[in-house]
């Protein structure tokens, strides 16, 4: 019971901080589940996150997969509820207000000012992921190629995930 | 155009959830604007913009915005449940398989490769977004401070609350000119 409560609280604190999606809360998720609670190691964390990226649906569901790994179905439910409920209640409560302010002048600086923050957090996530996933020369090659691929092309990132998996299977 | 029923909202978001590989927003736009015609391009962009400004996962916030617009509280519930039900079921299966077979050498090698590719994907996304942003110096400073704090494992609430005012001030200053 206490474990489930801990899961609920850990992901609950992440909920309202997820500006710009799952990638931005990844460093905090890593800090909580690996460093603070010791629920999994670095490699497991990065693999679970990668699986959630490869599956369809909102990337924030990485939280659900981690919940499952920590405590099965109940853990998945707790992580998902923690991650979604606070934000959902707030978003619902704010709808009346935001509909009235729609197209208003405050929206643009607000959007604009939070983007660099989100991008910075995503970059931090990338480095933390790379530290966890970079175990040998081949993984560094995969990281580098996939970085350039996603940065410079418009193809779906699923291709790099599939390619990375195939290379890992053949060579690692 | 007739307003969609809650059932239609649920089914449409169920479809969005199960098809949205690599991020929901592009698929949601395609479905809501192009296929269903429930929202104009402008209306979707505004709903998404609000979803991005509100704290919390923006795919969820946007789904709730769309749901409230057409069906109030029940509409919001229909959209949110639709969006998450399909992928959740799928991920429960994937997570169970991972727990059962994740330690097999071949599976482990494949997953290590996917994880490396995902790391690159996140890095590439950050570079792409950063370049597209063409940040002014103050905005760039906010972004770099966020990277540094993330790497120092600073607790996120402090990072967001500490940097958001600077981000807003920098954006306001840039847009004012």
What are the main properties of this structure?
heterodimer; A: 172 residues; mainly alpha; 7 helices; 0% strand; B: 177 residues; 3 domains; flat
SSE map:
The complex is a heterodimer of chains A (172) and B (177).
Chain A: H1 2-15, H2 22-36, H3 42-54, H4 62-101, H5 107-133, H6 137-152, H7 158-171
Helix pairs in contact in A: 1-4, 2-5, 3-4, 6-7
Chain B: H1 6-19, H2 25-35, H3 41-53, H4 58-101, H5 105-133, H6 137-151, H7 156-176
Plain-language structure description:
- The complex is a heterodimer of chains A (172) and B (177).
- Chain A is mainly α.
- Chain A has a domain at 2-102.
- Chain A is built from seven helices and no strands.
- Chain A has helices at residues 2-15, 22-36, 42-54, 62-101, 107-133, 137-152, 158-171.
- In chain A, helix 1 (2-15) packs across helix 4 (62-101), helix 2 packs across helix 5 (107-133) and helix 6 (137-152) runs antiparallel to helix 7.
- The radius of gyration of chain A is 18 Å and the shape is globular.
- The model of chain A has no long low-confidence stretch (mean pLDDT 87).
- Chain B has three domains: 1-101, no CATH class; 103-132; 135-177.
- Helix content of chain B is 83%, strand content 0%.
- Chain B has helices spanning 6-19, 25-35, 41-53, 58-101, 105-133, 137-151, 156-176.
- Chain B is flat.
- The N and C termini of chain B lie far apart (41 Å).
- The model of chain B has no long low-confidence stretch (mean pLDDT 89).
- At the A-B interface, helix 1, helix 2, helix 3, helix 4 and helix 5 of A face helix 1, helix 3, helix 4, helix 5 and helix 6 of B.
